[in-house]
Specification:
- The chain is mainly alpha-helical.
- It has a domain of about 140 residues.
- Helix content is about 75%, strand content about 0%.
- About 5% of the residues have low confidence.
Length: about 210
């Protein structure tokens, strides 16, 4: 769809729901500290949007699982990532339903409990993202085998810059060193003792 396969689509759908849910919890925390109703309302609306987005992300992730070439190590991480994602979605879905039914009638103790549950959900959300990152950055999950083999081949050959410079051309330091050698040679020649002559009529003597 639009040039995306399921793994890429899942990656594209992950970030926004996570950001919305974390922001919703932040709004609720600020509302509890400042006792400002507009912050609580903003947190509630943001949590609804984030939970809907999380549901879409989870569905795309379940589809991506069937289309990713992977080994046993990745499979274990993938299963943990999936469980954490479902737990995250479950926590925030319950919170949303709870607040839809009780938002205007919650007592202080109920609101405190709601905040504690949302903070726990945020912790599970962070763990979900950590396992997802581990799959990609440590095990290259979602990268086609052909592309991975090509990348490994290029890394084995090393990275080369092609600037068109001659390989045998001496660098500035080499030029400077050469100049210094000439200077030293000239100084040595000038310091070499020159032969001496005697004026006419001087008797011969031994040096």
């Amino acid at each position: 769809m639009f040039g995306y396969d399921w793994p890429r689509l899942h990656a594209a759908l992950n970030d926004l729901p996570a950001a919305l849910l974390a922001t919703a919890v932040l709004f609720d925390l600020l509302a509890a500290l400042t006792r400002r109703a507009p912050l609580r309302q903003a947190g509630f609306a943001t949590m609804i949007a984030g939970t809907i987005g999380a549901g879409v992300a989870v569905l795309s992730g379940l589809q991506a699982e069937e289309h990713i070439a992977h080994g046993e190590a990745v499979h274990e991480i993938m299963e943990t990532h999936e469980k954490l994602a479902l737990i995250t979605l479950g926590i925030f879905a319950v919170l949303v339903v709870w607040r839809i039914l009780r938002e205007r009638r919650m007592n202080p103790g109920e609101r405190t409990l709601s905040l504690v549950v949302s903070l726990a959900g945020t912790g599970v959300l962070v763990a979900t993202g950590a396992y997802g990152g581990k799959m990609v950055f440590e095990h290259a999950a979602g990268i086609p085998s052909k592309a991975l083999e090509q990348e490994l081949h290029e890394r084995a050959e090393g990275h080369h810059h092609h600037g068109g410079e001659a390989e045998d051309e001496p660098t500035g330091e080499e030029h400077e060193s050469t100049g210094e050698e000439h200077e030293h040679t000239d100084s040595a020649d000038s310091a070499a003792p020159a032969g001496h002559t005697h004026p006419p009529g001087t008797p011969p003597h031994k040096d």
